[in-house]
Amino acid sequence: MLRATAFALALLGVFSTPAQAAGLKATQSVELATVSLSADGSETVTFAPATDVEPGEQVRYRLAYTNDGAEAADRVSLVMPVPAEVTYLEGSIAGNAAQVTFSGDNGESFAPREAVRITDGETERVAASADITHIKWVFAEPIAPAESGAISFMAVLK
Predict the structure, then answer these.
(1) Facing residues of 87 across strands?
(2) What contacts 86, CB < 8 A, 6 or more positions away?
(3) Contacting residues for 20 by C-beta, under 8 A, at least 6 apart
(4) Structure pTM?
(5) CA–CA gap between residue 155 and residue 83 (Å, rounded)
(6) What number is the average pLDDT over the span 51-59?
(7) What was the pLDDT predicted at 22?
(8) How confident is the model over 82-87, as a mean pLDDT?
């Protein structure tokens, strides 16, 4: 069992913006995903704060942001690490960014998901989900004063 505090500490991400984006504030959270089946067989996913998480359960790492400044935040990029205790869940990226890239080398380099490569000894291969260490969202449009949004990804506890 892994406590949410360990998740929260592992989520200390890089918040990268230029100086004129000083009003941009962000709040990180880790939520346990619960899947429910309705009478018609459709699935509904709900999220609650992750207090206790068991291996195999899904969690959502979420970063909510708001521009509390008087000016637009321009050239914003947000980076979240994928903690070693979890495996990134393919196709789970959410958020209104122009470009999302991934890293398999602890944030040293970023590329589109299908282009992330890992070197194992003398062989090179496409990174598996478990190899993803960081995810980066780059916003093409400025974030206006009072504008809010969120980015997130899902993962499975190892």
Answers:
(1) 156
(2) 59, 155, 156, 157, 158
(3) 71, 73, 74
(4) 0.84
(5) 9
(6) 92
(7) 66
(8) 95
Bin 51: left if φ > 0, else alpha if -120 < ψ < 50, else beta: alpha
Residue 108: enclosing H or E segment and its boundaries? Answer: none
**How many beta carbons lie within 10 A of that of residue 71, not counting itself?**
13
Over residues 107-125, the pLDDT tens digits come to: 999 999 999 999 888 999 9
Closest Cα partner for 51 from 8, 1, 2, 4? Answer: 4
Q: Helix, strand, or coil here: 112?
A: coil
Strand stretches in 20-147, DSSP E: 24-37, 43-49, 52-53, 58-67, 77-81, 86-88, 99-103, 117-120, 123-126, 134-138
For residues 107 and 78, the answer to whether their CB atoms sit within 8 Å is no
Token pair of 32 as six digits = 């346990």
Name the amino acid, one letter, at 72: A
